[in-house]
Amino acid sequence: MAKRDLPHDHGDALPDTLEHMPDAGAFAAGAATFQQLSDPSRLRIFWLLCHSEECGANLAAALEMSQASISHHLKSLRLHGLVHNRREGKEIYYTLADNSTARLAHQMVDDFFCLTCPTEARKAHENKGPAMAHGRGGAGE
C-alpha cells in the first residue's frame, strides 16, 4: 500500500502499519469467518465438531434442534471452510476442518470460554501415570 499523507503526524506507527495492511478482500474473508461464529447455534455446533466427529442426526439430538436447522448450519460452516464432512455409507460425518483458520477459530473459542479442549484433556489424561490420572499428586491438592 502506498504511503498516504495523513492530517496529523503522530509518529511512524500508522504509516508503517498501513504498508502491511491486507487488502479489502482479506478483511471481507475474515469477517465472513467471524460471521459464522456469531450465530449461537453455529457456535455450539462448531465447538462440538472441534472435539468430536458426528453425524447430523446426533448433533440434532444433542442440541435439541431440527435436522433441517442442523443441516443449514453445517452447510454454512462447511462452505466457509470451518468444518469438513465425509460420507460413510448413507451417513455423513462432520468434524473440524484441517486448516489454519479452523484451528485458530477452535483455539479462540476454547480460550473465550476459558475451556480446556476436551480432546487435549483426554490426551493429557492418557499420558499421565495412574497416580496423576486419578488426581493424586497434582498442584493444589
Secondary structure blueprint with pairings:
Elements: H1 13-19, H2 24-37, H3 40-51, E1 54-55, H4 56-63, H5 67-79, E2 83-88, E3 91-96, H6 100-112, H7 118-127, H8 130-133
Antiparallel strand pairs: 1-3, 2-3
Helix pairs in contact: 3-5, 3-6, 4-5
How does this structure look, described?
This protein has 141 residues and is mostly helical. It contains eight helices and three strands. The chain has a three-stranded antiparallel beta sheet with strand order 1-3-2. A hairpin with a 2-residue loop joins strand 2 (83-88) and strand 3. The longest helix has 14 residues, at 24-37. The radius of gyration is 21 Å and the shape is elongated. The model is unreliable at 130-141 (pLDDT under 50).
Structural class: mainly alpha
Count the helices. How many? 8
Adjacency order of strands in the biggest sheet: 1-3-2
Q: SSE order, as H and E?
A: HHHEHHEEHHH
Tell me the overall shape. Answer: elongated
Features:
disordered C terminus; mainly alpha; 141 residues; three-stranded antiparallel beta sheet; 57% helix
Question: What is shown here, in short?
Answer:
This protein is mainly α. It has helices spanning 13-19, 24-37, 40-51, 56-63, 67-79, 100-112, 118-127, 130-133, and strands spanning 54-55, 83-88, 91-96. The chain starts with 12 loop residues before the first helix and ends in an 8-residue tail after the last helix.
